[in-house]
Design a protein that fits this description.
The protein is of the alpha/beta class. It is 56% helix and 10% strand. α7 links the parallel β3 and β4. The structure holds CO-5-methoxybenzimidazolylcobamide (B1M).
Length: 220
């Protein structure tokens, strides 16, 4: 069995105490942090979700698997993003939208952006539109990110975008959206600037968009 399969299995079985040792072993074998996340942790959580849908797994299974994943990510955190780059000027405000308590994916996006050098203000989970508005007023970020994992809560992304628009804060702000049920088509509909299917892509597109904006400002 490969080391990635072993990590996948311990997450699926919710064996929180075994995951860290295996992640360490994978890194020693030369597997990248991104591959551990995208080829073992995320597929394991997808499988957990699938079994939950089929009533083969129940909430405690979800919680144990989530706990195992969080431990693995905490161990990998210092390795995410480019690491060691000069600190960037821009701030990113991010949160999981109102009604939604899922934060594993959002935390990965936070860790990757921080690793890339951004200052990240993480508002946590179940964040109401008015809290996003207040945070944008206070921190004046270049980017605001919304994460949603439930089809019932993803509607709170466009609601929050509307709240920012009504508060006169939308212009000049890059809006990034993501989470399992969110698609590029949704992002286009909501007139969001960035859609990313995973944390690494989110950080890469944020970098590209901000670099392009800086270039435009230099030309003007
Ligand atoms: Co829940 N849950 N859950 N859950 N859960 C899902 C999402 C579900 C698909 C499972 C299923 O039924 N198959 C289903 C949603 C169905 C739907 O709406 N379509 C579901 C449900 C129904 C529920 C409850 C309603 C269950 C209940 O109570 N009956 C309940 C809701 C609670 C609430 O939020 N109000 C609930 C609760 C929970 C737990 C608390 C037990 C736990 C969350 C623990 C936590 O996050 N702290 C949990 C878990 C763990 C899951 C699954 C199994 C795994 C989610 C996860 O962590 N994935 C999930 C099944 C699934 O997703 N396949 C499921 C791993 C993570 C790395 O991936 O979050 O997708 P992800 O993040 C990715 C990308 O999406 C992207 O980058 C990340 C990786 O690089 N990304 C962004 C994420 N945010 C981004 C933002 C960006 C850009 C990219 O820009 C800003």
């Amino acid at each position: 069995m490969s080391i990635l399969d072993a990590i996948y299995n311990v997450v699926l079985e919710g064996k929180r105490n075994e995951v860290e040792g295996l992640v360490r072993q994978a890194l020693e074998e030369g597997v990248s942090a991104t591959d551990i996340i995208e080829k073992a942790l995320r597929p394991a959580m997808d499988e957990v979700g699938m079994r939950f849908s089929k009533a083969e797994f129940f909430l405690p299974d979800l919680i144990l698997a989530a706990e195992a994943t969080k431990r693995a990510i905490a161990y990998l955190r210092p390795l995410l993003g480019e690491g060691g780059v000069a600190s960037r000027q821009e701030t990113v405000v991010i949160g999981t939208v109102q009604g939604d308590l899922h934060d594993i994916g959002k935390n990965l996006v936070v860790a990757t952006l921080e690793g890339t050098g951004y200052r990240v203000v993480d508002l946590g989970v179940d964040v109401a539109p008015e809290r996003f508005v207040e945070a944008v007023r206070t921190h004046k970020p270049a980017v605001v990110g919304f994460s949603a994992l439930l089809s019932t809560t993803m509607v709170n992304i466009p609601r929050t975008i509307d709240a920012l628009r009504e508060a006169g804060l939308r212009e000049g702000l890059l809006i990034a959206v993501g989470g399992a049920p969110v698609t590029q088509r949704n992002a286009d509909e909501w007139q969001a600037d960035i859609y990313a299917p995973d944390a690494g892509t989110a950080a890469r597109i944020v970098n590209e968009k901000l670099a392009a904006r800086l270039k435009n400002q230099e030309v003007l």
